[in-house]
Amino acid sequence: MSTDYQQAREALGGRLRELRFSCPEGRLTGQQLSHRLGWPNSKVSKLENGKQTATPEDLRAWADATGQPEVYPELTARLTGFESHIRSWRRALASGFKPMHENLSSEIERTKDLWVWEESVIAGMVQTPEYARHVITRYSQLLSATGDIDDSVRARMQRQEWLYRSGRKLHVLMWEAALRSLICPPSVLAAQLDRLTGLIGMDTVDLGIIPFTASVKIVPANGFWVLDDRLVVAEDWHAEIWLDDADNIALYTKVWRTLRESAVYGAEAHNVINSARRALNPH
């Protein structure tokens, strides 16, 4: 998990521990607080040690249970702060692209099922090296980041070794726009589309494409990854957002499943990819 994010969780956990220690009626043990809240003992420990992200409801309950409801606005401000911007791309990229890729790769390594949605770019787990290089370079230019593009491409390719291990499954959905966006030269995109056709039928990859002509129940936007049932990683222009609370994981899982209802697979997906491929060489 990103250093900034984990440090922020640990800082919030430390503050929660302070509240438990400073309860007006006397210091509470973790067991006493968990009993008062009706929570498992492990939840109090995880929150205090930065192993789990608190929800606003958790913070309200904690403030009330420790007899200090007036601190709730402070707690939610802390939560909002690190949920919304501490993984700022500019801050994270101060150390280069490679550490960012390694942080996510370490989480993927311990993941059995990975659900991915991308609306306008080929999913990183199935990118070719040259396609990845162009995507990373574009972001580097946008964010005025310099340095380790080659190392970053290598790290992204090493991450794909996960696809060839038994017991793993990549469930990837992409909008047709991802097949046609010329973020790279046509020849690079053509090779990338050839790679996608080769993935269809692979036992560790379930590849779905939502055609432009498909009826959709929600707007096909905002790329994200769901790692097992424990973590969501979503991207925006300003930041990468890591969410591990049950409500958000359930929401993103529901979004993925809703999008999947509009996707085509197998031979139909192959046809959509081939159509995009032919469009690169109209003559």
Automatic annotation (TrEMBL):
Q: Which Gene3D superfamilies match?
A: lambda repressor-like DNA-binding domains
Taxonomically, the superkingdom here is: Bacteria
Kindly list the GO molecular function terms attached to this UniProt entry. Answer: DNA binding
Recorded protein name is Helix-turn-helix transcriptional regulator
Q: Name one Pfam family in it.
A: DUF5753
Looking up SMART domains in the UniProt record yields:
HTH_XRE (SM00530)
Domain HTH cro/C1-type intervals: 15-73
